[in-house]
């Protein structure tokens, strides 16, 4: 495939790495876009998973307007990350916020996909670089279509029907503070398919969140740990990656349904990094396997998921729930 191509609506597309990503050249996001351009961008995004627009000097209103071309903008459920002046915007920074230590200063520091602790994981996340350290503070992305394709046919077949449990804050080694415990109570555990059929491209992608996937439904803890360990390493092999070195004014939109990402926290607090994030609400995916407060659901598991082809949560799922109580 050529490195640079021109879209039918006139913008240029320059590929960012062999694995994923495209820079869009020739669009000024301070202006509203027409429907044909939005449709073309959506196609380019689905083909490349990450879109990069450089040199975009716009404010919250323009970021929200652009985000809404791709779906409803979420007022982010992790409330402590919300921008203090605008619930549709997340503020990610290591600088103090209104005179207090920023709660988002360590956000996204491990490989993950956004909002997989809910049954509507984010479709897209969009990040606008306002202030960038002189060096460091990159963001890495890993293509999970490729991660799935590069498994052996037998392992693909084995994991295709499986579900895994995603649990908010489960990967943290430090004790949870009161606010986190409160958030955990309103976000019960969710079982997601380990291989997610992308709702738009219909391509299968590995869907294991290295930060918060705790176990595979129906396997013993030992079996589960072994397989998840392997998949955590496999899912971020070098040839699946793009690493973005930010410049002020860069605006990136990524697809959480087929990518992992992480913020590289290799800079000190003497250097300010400040990003504005918007999040697009996702399609229903997976099933809640506990109710808020940790209670078990009555009767059948809650409605599902990516397609009719996905099996319902069975007795094995219920056993995992019980084992954990
Ligand atoms: O700050 C970054 O580079 C990414 C943070 C993150 O995980 C996110 O915005 O979802
Ligand atoms: Fe994230």
Structure, briefly:
The protein is α+β, with helices and mostly antiparallel strands.
- Mean of pLDDT: 88
CATH architecture: 4-Layer Sandwich
Small-molecule binders: 2-oxoglutaric acid, fe (ii) ion
For the secondary structure, the number of strands is 18
User: Any idea what the CATH superfamily is called?
Assistant: Clavaminate synthase-like
Which fold name fills CATH's third level, the topology? Double-stranded beta-helix
Major sheet, described briefly?
9 strands, mixed
Arrangement of strands in the largest sheet: 1-2-3-4-15-7-17-6-5
Overall geometric form: globular
| Rg from Cα | 20 Å
Low-confidence stretches: 299-325
- Taken as a percent bin, the fraction of beta residues is 15-25%
Task: Tell me what you see in this structure.
The protein is an alpha+beta fold and 325 residues long. The chain has a single domain, classed as Clavaminate synthase-like (Double-stranded beta-helix, 4-Layer Sandwich), CATH 3.60.130. The protein contains 7 helices and 18 strands. Strands 1-2-3-4-15-7-17-6-5 form a 9-stranded mixed beta sheet, covered by helices on one side. Fe (ii) ion binds next to loops.
Task: Give the topology, please.
Elements: E1 4-6, E2 12-15, E3 22-25, H1 35-48, E4 50-53, H2 60-68, E5 82-83, E6 86-93, E7 124-131, E8 139-143, H3 144-149, H4 153-159, E9 163-166, H5 178-186, E10 190-193, E11 195-197, E12 204-206, E13 213-216, H6 221-234, E14 241-244, E15 251-255, E16 259-263, E17 274-280, E18 287-288, H7 315-323
Parallel strand pairs: 3-4
Antiparallel strand pairs: 1-2, 2-3, 4-15, 5-6, 6-17, 7-15, 7-17, 8-14, 8-16, 9-10, 9-13, 10-18, 11-12
The chain binds 2-oxoglutaric acid and fe (ii) ion (FE2).
């Amino acid at each position: 495939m050529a490195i640079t191509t021109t879209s039918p609506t006139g913008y240029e597309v320059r590929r960012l790495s062999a694995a994923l990503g495209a820079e869009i050249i020739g669009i000024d996001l301070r202006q509203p876009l027409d429907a044909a351009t939005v449709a073309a961008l959506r196609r380019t995004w689905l083909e490349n998973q990450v879109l990069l627009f450089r040199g975009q000097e716009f404010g919250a209103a323009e970021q929200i307007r652009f985000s809404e071309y791709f779906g409803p903008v979420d007022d982010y459920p992790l409330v402590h990350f919300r921008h203090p002046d605008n619930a549709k915007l997340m503020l990610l920074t290591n600088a103090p916020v209104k005179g207090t230590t920023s709660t988002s200063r360590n956000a996204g520091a491990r490989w993950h996909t956004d909002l997989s602790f809910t049954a509507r994981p984010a479709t897209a996340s969009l990040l606008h670089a306002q202030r960038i350290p002189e060096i460091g503070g990159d963001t890495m992305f890993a293509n999970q279509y490729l991660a799935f394709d590069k498994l052996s046919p037998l392992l693909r077949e084995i994991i295709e029907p499986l579900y895994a449990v995603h649990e908010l804050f489960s990967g943290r080694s430090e004790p949870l503070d009161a606010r986190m415990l409160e958030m955990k109570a309103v976000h019960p555990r969710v079982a997601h398919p380990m291989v997610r059929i992308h709702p738009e491209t219909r391509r299968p992608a590995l869907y294991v969140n290295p930060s918060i996937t705790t176990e595979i439904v129906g396997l013993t803890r030992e079996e589960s740990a072994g397989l998840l360990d392997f998949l955590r390493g496999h899912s971020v092999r070098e040839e699946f990656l793009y690493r973005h070195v930010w410049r002020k004014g860069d605006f990136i939109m990524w697809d959480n349904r087929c990518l992992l990402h992480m913020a590289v926290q290799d800079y000190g607090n003497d250097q300010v990094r400040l990003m504005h994030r918007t999040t697009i609400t996702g399609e229903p995916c997976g099933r809640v396997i506990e109710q808020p407060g940790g209670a078990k659901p009555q009767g059948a598991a809650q409605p599902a998921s990516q397609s009719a082809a996905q099996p319902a949560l069975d007795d094995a799922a219920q056993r995992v729930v019980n084992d954990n109580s």
